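Here is the promised in-class demo. Please do not try to memorize the tokens; focus on the logic of going from shape to residues.
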């Protein structure tokens, strides 16, 4: 997967995400939005619930986004996007892309009921979950996207999270929606390609993008891209697509590495025991083997 850091001249000149957002240094979610808008273009409307992004978008009436953005209640990103799309269709503006843009808390947990309903109806929206594996905006609390063995302020060092991360993409794939995929800020061209593909499809499309969080993950801000790439190489966050709930396609993947370097680079794993590290590796290996089988890869 070469060219992970490559940026086209068009991307560098894009003004859909302008300077002046209030995100933390090295925020992966900010990068994810930049790539998303570059892929989807200016004819896009965003429904954005409470979360990191709604906090650093800007202080009203100012905004760092150059596309219409509607701030909505935590649980309602998918439902609001669905309503916006219905209204556009009535006006004959069916080509406008409607994007629900929510964090893992607003997707895996609080907003899941609306998302599941939209997927069941196969409403014509793109839903992107920028996943920083916790409720980072409100103080680094654990969510169901938080990995096993992780420190958060609600899973302190003596009581690290004991449950594995919810597999949100497989859950959405089980709704038999036209397109579900994983992506990461570590490989922007893969993310952009999947967004452009999603734009050509009608119905509910879901993309789960891994977005590093230096503040909550306790790593140097300049390492955000490296952390995201290590998640892929270690197979803690593999890249793939599910088409119509039936066809599984593995994306181009770099050579596999162990999880140690991925864990070592983040302070949130520093109190993880050797036993827990071993279980983390075994869990990653099991899930990777299952994914390859579903993608028709036997080796």
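The designed amino acids, position by position:
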């Amino acid at each position: 997967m070469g060219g992970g850091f490559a940026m086209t001249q068009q991307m560098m000149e894009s003004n859909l995400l302008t300077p002046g957002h209030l995100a933390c240094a090295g925020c992966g979610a900010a990068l994810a939005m930049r790539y998303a808008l570059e892929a989807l273009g200016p004819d896009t409307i965003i429904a954005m619930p409470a979360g990191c992004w709604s906090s650093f978008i800007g202080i009203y009436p100012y905004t760092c986004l150059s596309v219409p953005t509607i701030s909505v209640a935590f649980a309602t990103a998918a439902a609001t996007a669905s309503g916006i799309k219905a209204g556009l269709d009535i006006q004959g503006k069916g080509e406008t892309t409607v994007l629900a843009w929510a964090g893992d808390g607003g997707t895996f947990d609080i907003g899941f009921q609306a998302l599941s309903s939209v997927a069941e109806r196969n409403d014509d929206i793109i839903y992107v979950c920028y996943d920083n594996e916790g409720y980072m905006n409100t103080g680094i609390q654990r969510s169901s996207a938080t990995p096993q063995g992780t420190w958060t302020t609600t899973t302190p060092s003596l009581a690290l999270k004991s449950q594995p991360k919810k597999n949100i993409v497989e859950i959405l794939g089980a709704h038999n929606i036209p397109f579900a995929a994983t992506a990461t800020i570590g490989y922007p061209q893969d993310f952009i390609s999947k967004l452009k593909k999603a734009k050509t499809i009608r119905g509910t499309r879901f993309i789960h993008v891994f977005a590093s969080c230096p503040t909550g993950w306790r790593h140097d801000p300049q390492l955000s891209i490296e952390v995201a790439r290590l998640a892929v190489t270690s197979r803690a966050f593999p890249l793939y697509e599910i088409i119509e709930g039936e066809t599984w396609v593995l994306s181009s993947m770099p050579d596999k590495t162990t999880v140690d370097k991925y864990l070592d680079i983040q302070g949130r794993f520093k109190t993880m025991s050797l036993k827990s590290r071993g279980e983390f590796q075994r869990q990653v290996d099991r899930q990777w083997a299952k994914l390859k089988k579903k993608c028709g890869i036997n080796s």
